[in-house]
Design goal:
Layout lengths: L3 H15 L3 E4 H8 L7 E6 L6 H8 L3 E2 L2 H10 L2 E6 L4 E6 L4 H9 L1 E4 L7 E4 L2 H14 L5 H13 L8 H4 L7
Parallel strand pairs: 2-5
Antiparallel strand pairs: 1-2, 3-4, 4-5, 6-7
Helix pairs in contact: 1-3, 2-6, 2-7, 5-6, 6-7
């Protein structure tokens, strides 16, 4: 099976080639900023425009299952779509930045090395934006998700003293993507 990061690199290479701004969010971002947690997928906020759908589908179709109709619908509705790596059967959920937090995640993203060589780099949501997103999902789940809460605690613990105070400014009620 392909390594999830190899699959991620294949997807973001298509975004980079087409000039599509993206940011990796969710459990992948929280693992980078806090404690590692295995996940069955990767979440990305990507500013895909309708005129880019055909080119993106063409770039991805050799390695991924893609549905350009689903992509168009997600862009029009401000929702999400997914692509599935054919060999690894690994899913990447792509969220269109239709809310303030999604737009802020793109605007404040940080580039991180993907390996020790630093040659492959990816855009990751900031630790603060990842906390906001995790708290949002935690609240949506009636504050019962141990995974979301553990991710928040892991980031706070790992980055103690290095977090900007964004929770008070955010109102913590921001809709996610």
């Amino acid at each position: 099976m392909e390594n999830p990061f190899v699959v991620l690199v294949e997807a973001i290479r298509a975004f980079d080639t087409l000039g599509i701004d993206y940011v990796v969010v969710g459990s992948t971002a929280s693992s980078i900023h806090g404690e590692y947690r295995a996940s069955g997928d990767v979440d990305i906020v990507a500013d895909v425009k309708l005129h880019q759908v055909q080119a993106l589908a063409e770039k991805l179709k050799a390695e991924f299952y893609v549905d350009d109709l689903m992509m168009r619908r997600a862009i029009s509705d401000g929702g999400s779509f997914n692509i599935i790596h054919l060999r690894a059967i690994f899913k990447i959920d792509i969220f269109v930045p239709s809310t303030e937090l999604g737009k802020q995640q793109l605007a404040r993203r940080e580039q991180h090395p993907l390996d020790s060589t630093g040659l492959q780099r990816i855009w990751i949501a900031t630790a603060e934006d990842t906390i906001l997103a995790k708290l949002h999902w935690y609240r949506l789940g009636q504050e019962t998700s141990e995974l979301q809460w553990r991710d928040v605690k892991g980031i706070i613990g790992a980055r103690r003293g290095r977090l900007a105070c964004v929770l008070g400014r955010s109102g913590w009620g921001l809709p996610i993507y």
